[in-house]
C-alpha cells in the first residue's frame, strides 16, 4: 500500500515537479526557445525543465502569434516571438527545441544551427536518411550540437535492461532474436493529425516505428562489441549490413472524405503513401562478431491498434492497449524483456525468464547499482548516469533534458560537438577538456534509424518519405 502511494506521488511529481532554488544553479541556465505551440512540448521540455537548474524554457514562436501568446501564458513562458525566424535570430535564445512536423525538421533544425543555436530535434529526425545526414553535416559545419529527442534512451530502465541482457549473454549463448513494438490504440489520434499527412512526412513507421527500430538496434549493440556512442565504431558500415527481410503496411483509411483528400495523399508516384501500421523483419549484424552473425529482429508499429473481434451486433472495433515492449531471446531460450520502455516512470518491468520458465523481475527509476559495475558500464553502450543523478519521478524527458544540458555545457567548455557523447576509454576521457554528456544518442545512430526507415518503406512498396 505504502509503495502504491509513493508511486502515485512520483507520478504526480513528474507532472508537477518541485522548482529548485536559484542558488542551486552551477551555471546560467541555457535559454531554450520552442518552435511551434506543439502538443508534445509541455511533456518533452516545458515541465521537465522546471526542475532543472541547467535549462529554462524562455520563449516560444508560432505561425500565429495569438496562438503563441496563449501557449506562453498557459505554460508560464516569458517571451513570444512572432515567427520561427525571429526566435532563431534572437540573442536571448541559446538552444532550440524543434517539435515541428517531421517534414519540417530538416529545414528548421538547419536554420537553427546556422543561427548559432544548439538543437534538440524531435524524432523521427527527418523525412529520410539523406535529410538526416544533411542535417548533421550542417551541424558539424556550423560547430553545433544536434541531439535527436529519443527520450526513452536516457532513462535508467533501458540501461538496466541492457545490464540484464549483457549478463545473460555468453559466447556459447548468443542473442538470437529481438522483437519490439510501439502500438497506439485506435481512436487516440485524429485522422486529421500531422501523423497522417504525406507532405509532412507522416506515417506509422515514421511516428511510432522509429521506436522499435531504435530499440532493436540498441539491443544488438548491447550484445556486440565496441559499438559505443562516441567511439570510432563504424556505424555506416554496420548500417549497410542491415537487411530488411520483409515488411508490410496497412494503408491509412478514413471515412472522412475531406481528410482523405487533404491528408491521405498520394505519394510522388501517384500511389497511396501513408501507412497506419507497419511491421517488418530485419537482420541486424552483431557489431564486432567474428562470424559476422546477424540477429533476426521484428518490429511493429501502429497508429490505430484494434482488437481482432468487433462488438457483436454493433460491429464497432475495440481499441487495443498494448504497452511498448522490447524482448531479446538468447540461444538457450532465455528471454530478457522490458515492458513500457516509452513511459517507464509511470510503469515498467524488466523480466528475465530462464529456459525453464523461472522469472526474475527488476525496475530502475533511478540509476541502479548495477549500472556502476564493470558489466553495467560495458552494457550501457550509450553511457551511464552516476548513481547520484535522477529522482524516482524523473520521466524519460527529464533525463533527456539533463543529458542535453550536460552535452551543450561540455561543448561550451571546449569539447567538440561530435565528442559530447560519452568517452569510450580513459584516454579518450582525458582528451575531453570540457567533459561530456554521461548518456547520449550518437548522431550516427540517428542516421542508421532513418536508413532502416527508408529500407522498410522501400520494401513495403510505399517508397521512402520525400
Ligand atoms: N518524443 C515524444 O514523445 C513525441 C514526439 N513527437 C514528435 O514531435 C513532433 C510534433 O508532434 P505533436 O506535438 O504531436 O504535433 P502538433 O501537431 O501538436 O504540433 C506540431 C506543431 O508544428 C507546427 N507546424 C508548422 N507547420 C505546420 C504545418 N504545416 N502543419 C501542422 N503543424 C505545423 C504547429 O506550430 P504552430 O503552433 O506554429 O502553428 C504545431 O504546433 C513530431 O515530429 C512527432 O513525431 C510527438 C509526440 C511525442
Ligand atoms: O511517444 C509517442 O507516442 C505516440 C506517438 O504518436 C508519438 O508521436 C510518439 O512519439
From TrEMBL:
It comes from the Eukaryota. Coiled coil: none annotated. Residues 30-148 form the Gfo/Idh/MocA-like oxidoreductase N-terminal domain. One of its GO terms (molecular function) is nucleotide binding. It catalyses: D-xylose + NADP(+) = D-xylono-1,5-lactone + NADPH + H(+). Signal peptide: none annotated. It holds the Pfam family GFO_IDH_MocA. Gene3D superfamilies: Dihydrodipicolinate Reductase, domain 2, NAD(P)-binding Rossmann-like Domain. InterPro entries: Gfo/Idh/MocA-like_OxRdtase_N (IPR000683), Gfo/Idh/MocA_domain (IPR050984), NAD(P)-bd_dom_sf (IPR036291). It is an enzyme of class 1 (oxidoreductase). Its EC number is 1.1.1.179. The keyword Transcription does not apply. Belongs to the Gfo/Idh/MocA family. This is D-xylose 1-dehydrogenase (NADP(+), D-xylono-1,5-lactone-forming). The lineage of its organism: Eukaryota, Fungi, Fungi incertae sedis, Chytridiomycota, Chytridiomycota incertae sedis.
Amino acid at each position: 500500500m505504502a509503495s502504491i502511494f509513493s508511486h502515485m506521488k512520483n507520478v504526480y511529481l513528474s507532472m508537477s515537479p518541485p522548482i529548485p532554488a536559484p542558488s542551486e544553479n552551477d551555471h546560467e541556465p541555457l535559454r531554450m526557445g520552442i518552435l511551434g505551440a506543439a502538443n508534445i512540448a509541455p511533456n518533452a521540455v516545458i515541465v521537465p525543465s522546471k526542475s532543472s537548474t541547467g535549462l529554462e524554457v524562455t520563449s516560444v514562436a508560432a505561425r500565429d502569434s495569438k496562438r503563441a501568446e496563449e501557449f506562453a501564458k498557459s505554460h508560464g513562458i516569458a517571451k513570444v516571438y512572432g515567427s520561427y525566424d525571429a526566435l532563431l535570430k534572437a540573442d536571448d535564445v541559446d538552444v532550440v527545441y524543434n517539435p515541428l512536423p517531421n517534414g519540417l525538421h530538416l529545414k528548421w533544425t538547419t536554420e537553427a544551427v546556422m543561427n548559432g543555436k544548439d538543437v534538440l530535434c524531435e524524432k523521427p529526425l527527418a523525412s529520410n536518411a539523406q535529410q538526416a545526414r544533411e542535417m548533421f553535416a550542417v551541424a558539424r559545419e556550423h560547430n553545433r550540437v544536434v541531439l535527436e529527442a529519443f527520450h526513452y534512451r536516457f532513462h535508467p530502465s533501458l540501461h538496466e535492461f541492457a545490464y540484464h541482457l549483457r549478463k545473460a549473454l555468453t559466447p556459447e549463448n548468443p542473442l538470437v532474436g529481438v522483437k519490439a513494438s510501439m502500438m497506439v490504440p485506435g481512436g487516440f489520434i485524429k485522422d486529421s493529425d500531422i501523423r497522417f499527412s504525406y507532405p509532412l512526412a507522416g506515417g506509422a513507421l515514421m511516428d511510432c516505428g522509429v521506436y522499435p527500430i531504435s530499440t532493436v538496434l540498441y539491443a544488438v549493440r548491447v550484445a556486440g562489441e565496441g559499438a559505443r556512442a562516441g567511439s570510432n565504431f563504424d556505424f555506416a558500415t554496420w548500417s549497410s549490413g542491415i537487411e530488411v527481410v520483409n515488411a508490410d503496411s496497412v494503408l491509412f483509411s478514413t471515412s472522412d472524405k475531406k481528410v482523405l483528400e487533404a491528408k491521405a495523399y498520394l505519394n510522388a508516384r501517384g500511389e497511396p503513401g501513408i501507412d497506419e501500421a507497419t511491421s517488418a523483419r530485419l537482420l541486424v549484424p552483431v557489431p564486432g562478431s567474428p562470424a559476422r552473425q546477424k540477429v533476426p529482429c521484428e518490429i511493429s508499429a501502429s497508429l490505430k491498434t484494434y482488437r481482432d473481434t468487433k462488438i457483436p451486433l454493433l460491429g464497432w472495433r475495440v481499441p487495443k492497449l498494448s504497452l511498448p515492449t522490447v524482448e531479446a531471446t538468447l540461444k538457450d531460450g532465455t528471454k530478457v524483456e522490458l515492458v513500457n520502455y516509452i513511459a517507464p516512470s509511470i510503469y515498467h518491468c524488466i523480466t528475465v525468464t530462464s529456459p525453464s520458465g523461472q522469472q526474475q523481475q527488476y525496475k530502475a527509476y533511478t540509476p541502479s547499482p548495477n549500472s556502476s559495475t564493470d558489466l553495467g558500464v560495458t552494457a550501457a553502450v550509450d553511457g551511464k548516469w552516476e548513481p547520484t543523478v535522477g529522482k524516482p519521478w524523473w520521466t524519460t524527458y527529464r533525463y533527456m533534458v539533463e543529458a542535453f544540458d550536460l552535452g551543450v555545457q561540455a561543448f561550451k567548455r571546449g569539447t567538440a560537438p561530435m565528442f559530447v557523447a560519452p568517452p569510450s576509454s580513459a584516454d579518450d576521457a582525458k582528451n575531453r577538456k570540457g567533459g561530456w554528456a554521461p548518456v547520449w544518442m550518437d548522431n550516427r545512430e540517428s542516421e542508421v534509424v532513418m536508413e532502416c526507415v527508408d529500407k522498410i518503406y522501400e520494401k513495403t512498396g510505399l517508397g521512402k518519405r520525400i
